[in-house]
Amino acid sequence: MGVMPPTDERSNRSEPSSASLSTVASIRRLHPYVRTALPRLAGGLLASLGAGLMALAIPRVLQWVTDGPLTAGAREHDWSGLAWSVVLVAVLGVGEAGLILLRRTLVMFPGTRVEAAMRMALFRHLQDLPVAFHDRWPGGQLLSRIMGDLGLLRRWLVFGILQLVVSLVTIVVGVGLLVATGGWLGIIFLCGAIPVTVLAFRFSRKYRTISRLSQDQSGDLATTVEESVHGIRVLKAFGRGPDALDQFTEQAAELRETEIRKATTDAGLTTALRVIPEVTQAVALVVGAVLVARGEMTLGALVAFFATTAVINGPVVDLGMTLSMTLNARTAVDRFFEVMETVNPLTDPDRPADLAPVTPGRVSDTAGHVAFRDVTFRYDDADRPVLDHVDLELPPGTTTALVGLTGSGKSTLAMLPPRLFDVTAGRVEVDGVDVRAMTRAQVRERVAVAFEDPTLFSASVRDNVLLGVSDELPDAEREALLAESLDVAQAHFVADLPDGADTRIGEEGMSLSGGQRQRLALARAIAARPRVLVLDDPLSALDVATEEAVTARLRDVLSSTTTLVIAHRPSTVALADRVAVLQDGRVTAVGTHQELLASDPHYRYIISSLEEDYAAHADPGPSTDTATDPATDTAPEDRATQEALS
Ligand SMILES: Nc1ncnc2c1ncn2[C@@H]1O[C@H](COP(=O)(O)OP(=O)(O)OP(=O)(O)O)[C@@H](O)[C@H]1O
């Protein structure tokens, strides 16, 4: 049984938009990245060509030596001419080696630079793309593109492309020489080019599909590794490790099969490229022997012919390898541009609103008035909206608790002010300005968020907490902010960490408890001193005593901040000046807790449900509270709520 969704559902293996492009057109899209490297790559290509031509020149010298100095030397017993020809062959050999070295030197640096530039561009774009994109794309697919594909592309740039061009030029020039100087023998050799071309064409079509499949399957495998490492606690807790292993084994076997198909296809072409020239050579040898016997061809010409075919045979066999490298590189380019060409619909406006600058970490004198005006929101893949004509005002400096049944759209609504998603219709305003008229930087300077599931990075506590604080603030100010926000979030445990706030916390803060991580995430949101603070149930993992302490300190801090807090506990509702009720995608009531208790049956139902949960967590014994259906309108108001809300 699989523990994670099947790979095809996760791999984004839709028909790529580049499928209709030829390999050359697809690879030409690399131009902006390779432009600056082109002179050195061209130099490398010239060096390679020079080396190839020198290799081809050696047989000509051999022909001259055999028919000239060697024959004359044997006849006249004078070997002086031969010595010079040996020197000439040695010079050509050393020249070829020197040019190969020059090629390597020229292409190594631009290759790594192009790889690094493309990797940075892809990472930058991934950072820019909206949450909706990351919800859709599995991490492993992105990882395999940014690491594996770009590594493959570098190897092709520094070796494959040059080798391909050099092989083709050597073959064309070599065969040209054979035809020009070898007469019938050249034409026999040329005939071998027909099956080679047909096979190479068929190979390209087949190999392209397998190469794409293999690179996509590598991405799926990386996703499985990433998810099982990420979810190792759940897998272990539920004893699902063996299932994860089974799933991994199945995917790894699929990939292996594809790799074998790839290698077999490659081997098929390479074998054909070896056999066809050998066969033509055998035929040419028979014909050549007859021609020499009849005196229609010199022995030197025959030697030169076979020495030239020996030079050509290498590039012909290499053609298989360089062709498969090129097709793999083409797949890598396609996969790179599939992400790079994903348009971000959440962009900065051409003419952003003219707003006073705000320094994250410093209290600003902007009001922080938030308004949801006739807001409708629908997820891309959903058939109906989650939020349906929502109107809600958050007056400056107030704290509004958002309550609603599970799945009613609270988290979705909370993601609109920080522009993690844009509204489908209507508008969200901060201080009278539509957030879509602000740059994303302007929005983030004003709005900070803390989520229930806090993400911390592999960095020090200090760096994690001061993430949203301007680097331009003086160190003393940053330290004071750190101390204050840790204190408000009751994150006193930081002082007991081995290096205090300098302690590096593990990947995603895994070395900390859930409550500790939540408190650091809360401290991070507070430290930015935003005018608008969105808290998505940020205290859910805290014990009752710590929650009370955080709540008390938060009240002070929130007095000057406009706060929207999603409440799943009565104590969180207690933080708020007013409460908004979300029901069926609409805000159906807004008022103080007491007003809503008195007037809104759905609110009473929600509150009694929250109390039940709260009591169940605070006291695992049997609860006497019963949630009452709104239809009966008889929800009790018990002591727990009174205490929490007093
Ligand atoms: N990324 C998404 N893509 C598509 N649908 C989504 C996405 N996220 C949430 N939804 C759907 O939107 C609806 C509202 O979800 P949301 O998380 O906003 O509810 P919520 O009120 O915060 O729930 P809870 O109290 O359980 O956290 C749900 O039906 C959910 O399935």
From TrEMBL:
A UniProt-annotated Pfam family: ABC_tran
Molecular function GO labels: ABC-type oligopeptide transporter activity; ATP binding; ATP hydrolysis activity
Bias type Low complexity, positions: 618-634
CDD domains hit by this protein: ABC_6TM_Rv0194_D1_like
Domain ABC transmembrane type-1: 42-328
Annotated ABC transporter domain residues: 370-609
Subcellular location per the Swiss-Prot or TrEMBL entry: Cell membrane
Cellular component aspect of the GO annotation: plasma membrane
InterPro entries: AAA+_ATPase (IPR003593), ABC1_TM_dom (IPR011527), ABC1_TM_sf (IPR036640), ABC_transporter-like_ATP-bd (IPR003439), ABC_transporter-like_CS (IPR017871), P-loop_NTPase (IPR027417), Type_1_exporter (IPR039421)
Sequence segments annotated as region (Disordered): 1-20, 614-646
Annotated protein name in UniProt: ABC transporter
